[in-house]
User: Fold this.
Amino acid sequence: DAKTTQPTSMDCAEGRAANLPCNHSTISGNEYVYWYRQIHSQGPQYIIHGLKNNETNEMASLIITEDRKSSTLILPHATLRDTAVYYCIVRVANSNSGYALNFGKGTSLLVTP
Amino acid sequence: EAGVAQSPRYKIIEKRQSVAFWCNPISGHATLYWYQQILGQGPKLLIQFQNNGVVDDSQLPKDRFSAERLKGVDSTLKIQPAKLEDSAVYLCASSPGGNTIYFGEGSWLTVV
Assistant:
């Protein structure tokens, strides 16, 4: 699996957009970009994933550069409940047997009042 | 929809003792995972099951860790004998296949 690089920590003011970057310069053509987050004392939670195109759901937007070597997760209006560790993961998706995620250390996002 | 259930939530044992964790995945999910998360690190995959078969156990320390999913539904993870470095959160997760994995809240183990 391609390796990802994320900043160790970031701050964001409540109500502002949180933009979390991820570098994955060795990503292969069949690897997806996944984002999960982990709120303190809870298990990781799926946020969004994408292959080439930008994606948006009710939680966030995912912007993938044209060369696919980096991506940005955008939380459009961060709230205090968005304080968590955010993991960017690249992985081949296998719909037959599922897939395993290999987590790095992620980015610790602190949303402040 | 009920989530992934894990028990016990917290466990404290002495080194060289044994411990077992139980996981009940979301109904109908064929794939089940056990992850280990040491404080300050991201989760690390220990073992992946597809129904009752093992897909990947390359990172499971087999001299002391074992896991089973006999009927292809719930699963147990056992550690015997425990070491101090086994202190961690043990996360169970399940997936119906495809792109989303659902995690339980984890079982917190402290080895003293």
Remarks:
- Strands of chain A lie at 9-13, 18-23, 31-38, 45-50, 55-56, 61-64, 70-75, 84-92, 107-112.
- Chain A is about 0% helix and 45% strand.
- Chain A has a mean pLDDT of 91.
- The CA atoms of residues 53 and 64 of chain A lie 7 Å apart.
